Amino acid sequence: MLDGFARSITYLRISITDRCNYRCRYCMPDGGIEKCAHEDICSLEELRDMAAAAVRCGVKKIRVTGGEPLVRRGAVDFCRMLSEIPGVEELCVTTNGSLLKEVAQPLRDAGVTHLNISLDTLNEERFRTITRLGTLQDTLDGIKAAERAGFAKIKLNCVLLGGVNDDEIADFVDLTREHPWQVRFIERMPMGCGKNFGTYLPSQAVLDRCPELEAVSHDGVAACYRLPDAKGTVGLIAPMSHAFCAECSRIRITADGKLKPCLHSDAEITLRGLSGEELEQAIRRGILMKPERHHMDETGVTETHRGMFAIGG
Ligand code: SAM
Ligand code: SF4
What is the Rg, in whole angstroms, of the alpha carbon atoms belonging to the chain? Predict the structure, then answer.
């Protein structure tokens, strides 16, 4: 379906939980979060029905995210339910990778086609500092398990944090020489704690540090580059310096059953409690409410009250 600005809306991101086993400093506050009350969180069947209605409205690609989606009991079964919806062409999961060692194969068997794994540093001590609770080896083991399970085109998400991990840009780019991964550098967005950890760095910093990168193509919202003879690619995702709103094909559903037409707007539509035609109509209304663009580049702040952990990126 087309939105009010003739953009084709084909991509749904579902956050199945606002909880996480990490506390990344750019995502979650020090003292933890004010979690959604248990009764406010939709059942996985409710979320499946919302996804199926979105597919009837034209969605072809679904991403399961969180919080950390794999900490929710039933996450793998949920993926299977989504993969069984007729019309779903791509089923993706974004994860911090900590639990992948055990569940990469079950996810693959459940019909997940693509995995994005977040990894902001290759240094053990720094990993613990950034995530507060995580262990680098768990994520590295998770990446290996994902490869063993047969996931092709694994994407590693690295948020650019000036003064924190920018000295590792070249090391991350080097990973693509031997691995057929896409290493994606994401500009830090000024949402919640995202304002307070590290400094903002434009994605151009990657090209400045690695001038041998050659432009190859676009992959969704990522501008892609490759080192000569490398097996993998480097993706630059620049929501701040090169807002991609004109090509946005996304809608989002939160764990408490709200449709968010735009990541950075506070507008939300309640889907919980609706079914059949009513549910579909609400999703169509949400698609038509998508704003033309966000305004973070001018104001430096997002307009949404939710933290990234409660939307899913
Ligand atoms: N827990 C999972 C993970 O970390 O991959 C999925 C949810 S997380 C909110 C989704 C993505 O958003 C991660 O790649 C994370 O690094 C990114 N993210 C979180 N806060 C951000 C911010 N302020 N700016 C840019 N990316 C952010
Ligand atoms: Fe958890 Fe992902 Fe947020 Fe880190 S970025 S705190 S792993 S939800």
Answer: 18
Domain boundaries, given as residue ranges, for the chain: 11-310
**Is pLDDT above 70 for 300?**
no
In tens, the pLDDT along 86-142 reads: 999 999 999 999 999 999 999 999 999 999 999 999 999 999 999 999 999 999 999
- 3-state SS of 79-110 is HHHHHCCCCCCEEEEEECCCCHHHHHHHHHHC
Terminal C-alpha separation, the chain: 22
Q: Tell me if 271 sits within 8 A of 50, measured CB to CB.
A: yes
- Alpha-carbon distance of 93 to 114, in angstroms, equals 7
pLDDT in tens, 240-299: 998 889 999 999 999 999 999 998 888 999 999 999 999 999 999 999 999 998 876 655
> Which bound ligand lies closest to the C-alpha atom of 68?
1
Ligand 2: residues within 6 Å at CB? 20, 22-24, 27-28, 66-68, 96, 118, 309
- Residue carrying structure tokens 């097996």: 231
Which atom of ligand 1 is closest in space to residue 20's alpha carbon? 1
Whole-angstrom distance, CA of residue 162 vs CA of residue 158: 12
For the entire predicted model, the pTM comes to 0.96
Asked whether 308 lines ligand 1 (CB < 6 A), one says yes
- Give the closest residue (by CA) to ligand 2 atom 4: 24
Output the CA 160–ligand 2 centroid distance in Å: 15
Structure tokens at 62: 């679904």
The answer as to CATH 3.20.20.70 being correct for domain 11-310 is yes
